[in-house]
User: Fold Radical SAM protein from Tunturiibacter psychrotolerans.
Amino acid sequence: MIVLFNPRATKPRNRRLPLAVLAIAAVLEDREDYEIVDGNVDDNPVASISRLIEQYDVELLGVSVMPGPQMVAAMDASREIRRAYPHVKIVWGGYFPSVYPDAALNAKYVDYIVRGQGEDTLLELLDAMRGKRAFDSILGLSYKDIFGLPRNNAERPMKGPDEFPWSPFHRLPVEKYLRPSFFGKRTAVHHASIGCPFNCSFCGVHAAYGNKERMESPERTAAILSHLVTEYGADSVQFYDMNFFLREDHALELAKRIEHLNLRWWCEARVDVMSRYSDETFAALKRAGCTMIFFGAESGSDWALKEMKKGISTEQTVTIAERTKQFGIIPEFSFVIGNPGDPERDTRETLAFIRKLKKINPDSEIIIYHYTPVPQPGDMYGNVDGQIAWPSTPAEWASKRWMDFTLRIDTQAPWLQRKTKDLIDNFEIVIGSRWPTVQDIRAPKWSRILLKTLSAWRYALGVYRFPVELQWANEFISLRKPKRESL
Ligand code: B12
Assistant:
């Protein structure tokens, strides 16, 4: 038997279908004996895994690992299982081991790493474990050789979603995952493409997947959504694609195919791509239920956008603010402020730019992060001219310093002066109070009015320093921040 484990990554109320383990389960279905254990549902996943090991002949524990709290849960559980059942092999897959394979493989309790797309690599790994092929022939696999030395096999070329079977939803209690959100009472999630053709220097996607994107056919996306609606009563969906819209004809066809499902939905897109879409496409997307789109606007400085290889311009972001307003779609603009090139200038210009966007489209949701690099292909020893040296073990990644880095709470980036960091953080609290997110469906009306009233003078006058009263009010009200959904 194979046990697939999704360690806890979020509060129960924010839990969503675990797409990574479902994708892996899809290729095991009808082929292998397997069970899924999800730490977002199960209060004691280690006990559940142990029970399975004691009852069945468990050959492999497959753990899905994202950086952040999920990595810590994966580390603790893998350690415990290794201690109690040393004969069970452990493989880690997902973003953490894909982006930091050496650190993951340094852990004694990790035997194999599956980098990037995992379906075929896992099947081949099972063959190798059963003596049917050599470990060094498996693309996308990292492992320890007979001397215990790390081996990173070459990358595996990505396949499109249509080349794999559908997720076996029936293996999970789906109703537990369709939770209320701003978009509906029963919100599902789906991934309708894989990869992203861009190379932004702060994003983990190309570090894990390279720079290609493969899209699911609109026909299959519509069929899966229709299944989630008719079988499980989904009324809304969040598309978790790294880049949902690439080709306009594809977007238009999909919109037409899903319109009749009456779903309200959210997705991620790029301002350069969407600013070129016709009015007809925007209107079709709106009719098809598109409610909110997340855009990585990243900076209000064109030079900073160039430095981070984003490939967009501030003008395109402005166009999107205008066009989303015209079509009644809420834009969610995310910024990564404090570019190492000139963090003070980037901060100044970006804060002014955010104010401009809010004027154009007051419904814009604003998400603010500190600029946080990820390892770039080729930079093995550090990042940003050697100013960041990466941890070499999961335990080090789990320390407060690196958890704050991962969650972008405090990157401790050497280029970011304290006063600039404070300015970014203070601005975030002022703008977040002046326009509380619409996405916290639990916040009572009075709490929004209180925050807006308290912050109005600060925003109007541009006074962001020492917003203690807002910190206090935010703590008291505890409004959900879309970006910190996991905590
Ligand atoms: C959904 C999601 C979340 C959800 C998770 C919900 C859930 N179900 O638990 C939530 C909101 C909780 C979340 C939170 C965070 N996330 Co997140 N998240 C994503 C997102 C949008 C989709 C991931 C997904 O489901 N993909 C679909 C599946 C099918 O693909 P996959 O995960 O890559 O899985 C494949 C392979 O990796 C591999 N694989 C995966 N697991 C396993 C296991 C085994 C055994 C094997 C063999 C293979 C394997 O095979 C799978 C199929 O091919 C990605 C961006 C993206 N579009 O990928 C960001 C992303 C993964 N998140 C990211 C980050 C940074 C975070 C946060 C740290 C953000 C924050 N500041 O709080 C937190 C921390 C999470 C935590 N608690 O530990 C980054 C990671 C970047 C990096 N540096 O590595 C990403 C890439 C976003 C980005 N562009 O920067 N996230």
